Amino acid sequence: MSGRIVVTGAGVLAPNGLGVADYWRATLAGRGGVAAPERLDLSPYPLKAAGEIPGFEPAGVVPGRLIPQTDRTTRFALAGASWALEDAAADPSAAGRYDVGVVTANGCGGFEFGQRELQKLWSQGPQRVSAYQSFAWFYAVNTGQLSIRHGARGHGSVVVTEQAGGLDALAAARRKLRDGTLRLAVTGGVEAPLCPWGITAQLPNGLLSEVPDPHRAYLPFDRGAAGYVPGEGGAILVMEAEDAARERGAPHVYGEIAGYAASFDPPPGSERPPVLTKAIAGALDDAGVRADQVDVVVPDAMGVPAMDRAEAAAIAEVFGPRGVPVAVPKTMTGRLYSGGGPLDVVAALLMIRDGVVPAAVNIGDIPAEYELDVVLERSRALPVRTVLVIARGLGGFNSALVVRGVRP
């Protein structure tokens, strides 16, 4: 084995596109999915916009028997995994008994399912509560359902580190593939927090944008930034060792998961600085690349001024002032929690494939002191071989992952 762990399949569910092709087409066109949601009435809440996935119908992509026992987040996961395996032309049943595993991330759980069953408990009594409530709400349910659905009897786990979790899950899958525990991994993260319980759970952090105009609600790195907009969806990937992928005749290799590192910020009030730079430097070191060899950075882009300022400072410290193009595709989707990192990884892989960096939407008034070269107004054509993706979770989680192109 070469030791290189590559992505051979992807399934995308984003507010601006279902499937890799639709998502990428929308992203390059600057077509966003942040709007007033159709499935959720936001009038009782201070926020007025969200990244909702329109038109997702589980029938046809999710087995009918699973629909009554799953939350929307699990239906996303089931659809994404099926699309990713199809994209990779991978058949888990053809692998060894314990060669296929599942590692997912989740930050919100099955909020909508849980809320519905709790309402039944209050209004109709315990006898009306679904037996599926025992697991449909749980953070690990996507790993379990995907393992059962695809007969993946190998290693299975879940990572819960808020928005950083999606990158952490890919890294955990990479470790299991590198040490030979697995031959093929289904991994990534998706979320579905757009329901009354899900929104209410986010209100206490005080970081949600209350700007009513969907085009001005989420402005990461912009002078008008006023908080983040929540979104749903994410991405599920198929990962395997490069030699194994080529041996079985995988139709394509999107790229390599080349490096990863994580760090944890000190608690507020400690007077110690954030340590995002340690995660970035660690990921570059793990990948064996220098800062000047990174072609694009895809940041976490919280949209909260203090957090944007800290991330901008970390990027400028590692890469120099305006030292690397910065792509912010999340301006078109909102903040997807554990789904955000894997979706950004898909965007990074497509930048490498097509040699183009998508422009952010809605933002443009970026403070000079941020010292960032954010790609704005129009996509930028340039050779892309190495991309750094950053994700930060509330509570101090920092993750950085290096994606690199693989020559045939």
From TrEMBL:
* CDD domains (UniProt xref): CLF
Q: Which Gene3D superfamilies does its entry note?
A: 3.40.47.10
Q: What is this protein called?
A: Ketosynthase chain-length factor
Q: Does the keyword Transferase apply?
A: yes
Signal peptide bounds = none
Q: Which SMART domains match?
A: PKS_KS
Where does this protein come from, organism-wise? Actinomadura nitritigenes
Q: Which parts of the sequence belong to the Ketosynthase family 3 (KS3) domain?
A: 2-405
Cite the PROSITE patterns for this sequence: KS3_2 (PS52004)
Which one Pfam family would you cite for this protein? ketoacyl-synt
> Which InterPro entries does the entry link to?
Beta-ketoacyl_synthase, Ketoacyl_synth_C, Ketoacyl_synth_N, PKS_Beta-ketoAc_synthase_dom, Thiolase-like
User: What domain of life?
Assistant: Bacteria
